[in-house]
Amino acid sequence: MHMFFVVAAVLAVTFMAVLGVLAVAGVWVPPVARRRVLRRRLWGYGALVNAVGLGLFMFLGPLADAGLEFLPGLGWCLWMGGMAAQLLAQRPGRPAPTKTAS
């Protein structure tokens, strides 16, 4: 059962990295994010950093007992930094329209 989770995690991280490469190359952004993304390359770099950070956190994080205590923290910081870059690449939200008295 553990192997299924590992394979699913590897596929998710790989898919995220492929989305980042496609966005950096200017080829494609997923339809879910296409309407909101203004800066495609920044979104792609964010997805790449996100994938690297998540991979470090999940797969090399358990090596913290082997003298590599910084890997989980570094992976988590990269993961959050990638999400912040993806957030900055999106257009800002607009306030809800209000009714005006006519």
Task: Tag the structure with descriptive keywords.
4 helices; mainly alpha; 102 residues
Shape: elongated
Poorly predicted segments: none
Q: Compute the number of strand runs.
A: 0
- Return the structural class: mainly alpha
Number of helices: 4
Rounded to the nearest angstrom, the radius of gyration is 18 Å
* Percentage of residues in DSSP E strands: under 5%
Largest sheet: none
How far the N terminus sits from the C terminus, by CA atoms, comes to 64 Å
Architecture blueprint of SSEs:
Elements (H helix, E strand, L loop, with lengths): L1 H23 L6 H4 L5 H21 L9 H19 L14
Written account of the structure:
With 102 residues, this protein is mainly alpha-helical. It is built from four helices and no strands. Helix 1 runs antiparallel to helix 3. The chain starts with a helix and ends in a 14-residue tail after the last helix.
Quick overview:
Helices cover 66% and strands 0% of the residues. It starts with a helix and ends in a 14-residue tail after the last helix.
